[in-house]
Design brief:
The chain is an alpha+beta fold and 450 residues long. It is 25% helix and 31% strand. It has 10 helices and 17 strands. An 8-stranded antiparallel barrel has the order 1-3-4-5-6-7-8-9. A hairpin with a 2-residue loop joins strand 10 (170-180) and strand 11 (183-192). It is globular.
Length: 450
């Protein structure tokens, strides 16, 4: 038990770890696997009542970086504070980090810290401005300044992943991965043959949220082609029927992302950089997990060995004709005389208020999104005669979403394929082939660090 006199130091230790974590991120131009480990040399903590705490106060702090994630560990005697962050550079000399895992102060999960930094003579200098502690304490930190040195004991970085030029042989197997509401759902694993480990990508099918005839084999040919490039592809089923409504399938997809991250090594895959491929309504479900991975109802299904919603945000997303704005999509379908999307939208979003609550475009408009993963969005556009063959979602809907995503700090690549209909990746042809080339280039760029 921690006595009253020791509690302020424990809180300061947790705060210091929180404020310092992520500070090596800006010096890594293309972060890959654990490319840098840093140790704190000294620090100064400025408190709201004017008190200034100098030095590390017996703490030993280190940071290790994984892609867009940072793991911070501070040791003070027998007390260890471990925090996991997601981060993004928001301006030259400045980055923002978001707490995604914090065992000692779970109330800080989802909070953000702004950090200014500079690098001089191989040292990193940071100034961090933390979020308030839960419970409105009388004394709280308002700023932390710190100096870091590279930790020479860090292990050497692993070589970056590269996708193959020659197709690999692929084997498939089916596994049960989710049991919910008395139902068990399966995943099909497309496993490249070779030494591996292979980067993993989850495939989330479409089906207007309600169609029971659309399952995990919707993209079977496309999934096999991706696996032949050297990706471990896992296509999943989830709750999709007229009897299931928002947010049932969102929770299933959120679970599937965390499950694959925790189980990729079982199939000779790597969880280091996990992507998601999704189409149509499946794209809608994935976008919700990308925007709000820790939303309690989305992360409601626990994964064995995974803490809370840790790992639910994909490291990158490939969305093919996604329903990025269900309300605008319903209006578009009604306008062009496509009645099936209107009906399925009304069924899935029958809970009051759900059409706006579970709307990716509205989430961006309300500024509720967290850190945003890189996103490739592919949409069919008008043909040479100006005819739009996709009667489900318009180019204008995707353009508005792309603008909002970028305005929120996300990197989004929008590709419009003239004349492509909805569901074009389900059948061989020029549109599917071009989409495959775009996806391969995009994924290679992510694997190389951006």
């Amino acid at each position: 038990m921690i006595g009253p006199s020791a509690r302020p130091l424990v809180v300061l230790a947790a705060l210091l770890a929180g404020l310092l974590a992520g500070c090596a991120a800006p010096v890594i131009t293309n972060p890959g696997p654990p490319v840098a480990r840093w140790r704190a040399v000294d620090s100064t903590l400025y408190l709201s009542d004017g008190m200034v705490v100098r030095g590390l106060q017996g703490r030993e702090c280190r940071l290790e970086f994984f892609e867009h994630r940072v793991v911070s560990e501070c040791h003070a005697g027998e007390v260890t504070t471990r925090i996991v962050y997601a981060y993004r550079v928001v301006a030259p000399g400045q980055y923002e980090s978001e707490v995604v895992e914090h065992a000692r102060l779970p109330g800080l999960i989802g909070t953000r810290t702004r950090t200014e930094f500079r690098v001089e003579d191989g040292q990193l200098f940071t100034t961090s401005y933390p979020p308030p502690l839960p419970g409105s304490p009388a004394r709280y930190a308002i700023k932390t300044e710190a100096r870091w040195m590279r930790d020479e004991t860090a292990r050497a970085p692993a070589p970056p992943f590269r996708l193959g030029c020659e197709p690999l042989s692929v084997r498939t197997l089916d596994v049960d991965y989710l049991t919910v509401g008395g139902q068990t759902f399966a995943a099909t694993v497309y496993q490249p043959e070779g030494p591996g480990p292979f980067p993993a990508i989850l495939d989330v099918h479409g089906g207007a949220w309600t169609r029971e005839d659309v399952r995990r084999d919707e993209h079977a040919q496309f999934d096999r082609a991706l696996a032949g490039l050297g990706l471990l592809v896992v296509a999943v089923d989830y709750r999709q029927s007229p009897s299931h409504h928002y947010p049932d399938s969102v929770a299933d997809v959120n679970y599937a992302i965390r499950w694959l991250r925790a189980n990729a090594t079982r199939f000779n895959g790597s969880p280091r950089l996990l992507g998601v491929l999704a189409s149509s309504s499946g794209g809608h479900l994935v976008l919700l997990s990308a925007l709000r991975p820790a939303e309690p109802r989305y992360a409601a299904l626990p994964v064995a060995g995974v803490v809370g919603a840790d790992g639910a945000r994909p490291d990158y997303v490939v969305a093919v004709y996604p329903i990025s704005d269900p309300a605008a999509r319903r209006a578009y379908a009604e306008r062009v005389g496509s009645t099936a999307p209107v009906k399925s939208t009304d069924i899935y979003f029958s809970p009051p208020g759900s059409l706006q609550e579970g709307n990716p475009q509205a989430i961006l408009d309300r500024r509720q999104a967290g850190l945003l993963p890189p996103l490739l969005l592919i949409q069919g556009g008008p043909d040479a005669g100006g005819v739009m063959h996709d009667k489900n979602v318009s180019v204008e809907i995707q353009q508005r979403f792309a603008a909002s995503y970028r305005a929120a700090g996300g990197a989004l690549q929008l590709e419009v394929l003239p004349g492509a209909p909805h569901n074009f990746v389900n059948s061989p042809g020029p549109d599917a082939e071009r989409a495959l080339r775009l996806i391969k280039t995009f994924i290679e760029r992510q694997l190389a660090g951006g």
